[in-house]
Write a structure and sequence with these properties.
Length: about 450
């Protein structure tokens, strides 16, 4: 596990420092934050529209780039604002980014949910994957830009990708019903975009998300039968699953992952007045300024600033989140309340340090005991972050089979294996060029500083 931590925090250091390098591709000023961009302001009377209705659209104003510098080859990229619902089914809006590959198969649509894991509206994927996006909040949107490699792998298969800002304009992270609704309404809007994207209105649809992205995808899977029953979804891949928020609260607090907690609490305050009141009233005065940094920061900055902190100690009553009203909020936003009606591929590390594997074991058992169709693949060694990449080939292969209409069989099955980037499956699915880029990153990390092992 120490080796994995050294690799990933070395990778984080490498990516952060490379942002200071001059870019051959920068030719004009930085793009405005979503909070300052008029496109992100909803039109009047949007509340009257049906969920999934397109409210406005534009071509993405800047090229889509990996690691902030290298253009992704596309035949088109669009921002679409659409009507969706918040945690309580009140009308709100979200934006999805539709990416059309160079050689598209307009009959195949993947909804990819990025693990934004932050409560600032300026951390959304629609902004973070553009060239010339501002590198603030501090450390930028590093994780989103790394996950773009997975989107690129999907694009290389000819799949059209839609990737929603499922936290909405408010940055409502961990308001997971909102996230699920936004995913489904993003699919509805994308299928309705035929007149300017060319996507087939009856395209085969799949979903994919890892970690925080698996929460959004997972809630979409659970609410789909009642919220969007007309959508015919061929399957969903859920990696690094985080089904039980309570477990994460206690595993993350006082660890390198402690920054997840203030971001999640602040994200809830966007949808829950009770949590907003707690932030205003219950934070210790001397801790308030530090806590509220999450309103303007993204995932990596929060990890750095809150590493190993006791987040409960920021509050006058450290046990505040054990109160029944807060336990209810946590439970509302945890998975395992409804049975998916579509096939699932769930992949999870037995060594996951963020969310115990036992929580996913329990979730899968609940699904399977109630008739769901699940292939549950447990990795034997990778940590939470490493599996995001090493598990991608298995997920991509499974999704490809769904697009091809191959049978998933019936019932559930559990498998265990080592998943890695160096096995033949990874080369065949991700492609040599993409593997080479990832291995080049690894080489630079190994040759770089190791003081970030923490």
């Amino acid at each position: 596990m120490v080796v994995f931590s050294t690799f990933w925090f070395g990778l984080l250091f490498f990516i952060v420092t490379t942002q200071a390098l001059p870019s051959l591709f920068n030719s004009h000023g930085p793009a405005p934050f979503p909070s300052e961009d008029p496109f992100y302001q909803p039109p009047q009377d949007y509340e009257c529209a049906e969920p999934g209705t397109i409210l406005k659209q534009r071509k993405v104003p800047n090229p889509i780039v990996t690691l902030g510098k290298i253009p992704v080859r596309l035949s088109g990229a669009y921002h679409v604002m659409y009507r969706t619902s918040d945690n309580f089914r009140n009308a709100t809006v979200a934006v999805t980014t539709i990416l059309i590959p160079e050689k598209p198969d307009y009959n195949k649509l993947l909804s990819f949910q990025v693990a934004e894991d932050a409560a600032s509206p300026n951390c959304g994927v629609s902004y973070a994957i553009q060239r010339d996006h501002q590198t603030e909040p501090k450390y930028g949107t590093i994780i989103t830009r790394v996950e773009l490699f997975l989107i690129v792998a999907a694009l290389k298969n000819g799949w059209v990708v839609t990737t929603p800002d499922f936290e909405g304009l408010e940055g409502s992270w961990l308001a997971n019903h909102r996230a699920g609704y936004a995913v489904l309404d993003g699919i509805r809007a994308t299928l309705a975009s035929n007149c300017f994207t060319g996507i087939a209105q009856d395209a085969t649809v799949t979903m994919w998300g890892y970690s925080g992205g698996s929460l959004a995808s997972g809630f979409a899977v659970e609410v789909q039968p009642c919220y969007a029953p007309e959508l015919k979804i061929a399957g969903a891949a859920l990696g690094g699953t985080v089904p039980n928020i309570t477990s994460v609260v206690y595993s993350a607090n006082k660890s390198i992952w402690a920054g997840l907690l203030p971001a999640g609490i602040y994200g809830w305050s966007r949808d829950y007045p009770l949590v907003e009141t707690s932030i205003n009233v219950m934070l210790k005065p001397e801790r308030r300024k530090d806590f509220l940094k999450v309103a303007n920061q993204c995932f990596a900055a929060n990890l750095v600033d809150f590493a190993f902190d006791d987040i409960f100690a920021y509050f006058k009553d450290p046990s505040i989140f054990n109160r029944p009203e807060y336990v209810n909020i946590i439970n509302e936003n945890s998975m395992g309340k409804r049975i998916p009606q579509i096939p699932l591929f769930v992949y999870k590390s037995k060594e996951d340090e963020v969310s115990p594997v036992e929580d996913t074991d329990e979730l899968v058992k609940y699904y399977c005991d109630n008739g769901a169709n699940v292939h549950y693949n447990r990795d034997l060694k990778a940590g939470h972050l490493l599996l995001a990449l090493s598990g991608a080939p298995s997920a991509l292969n499974w999704l490809a089979d769904r697009f091809e209409g191959k049978s998933v069989g019936t019932g559930c099955r559990v498998t265990e294996e080592f998943m890695g980037l160096t096995d033949p499956q990874a080369y065949s699915v991700l492609g040599l060029a993409l593997i080479a880029e990832l291995l080049a990153l690894l080489r630079k990390v190994i040759l770089g500083p190791t003081s970030l092992a923490w």
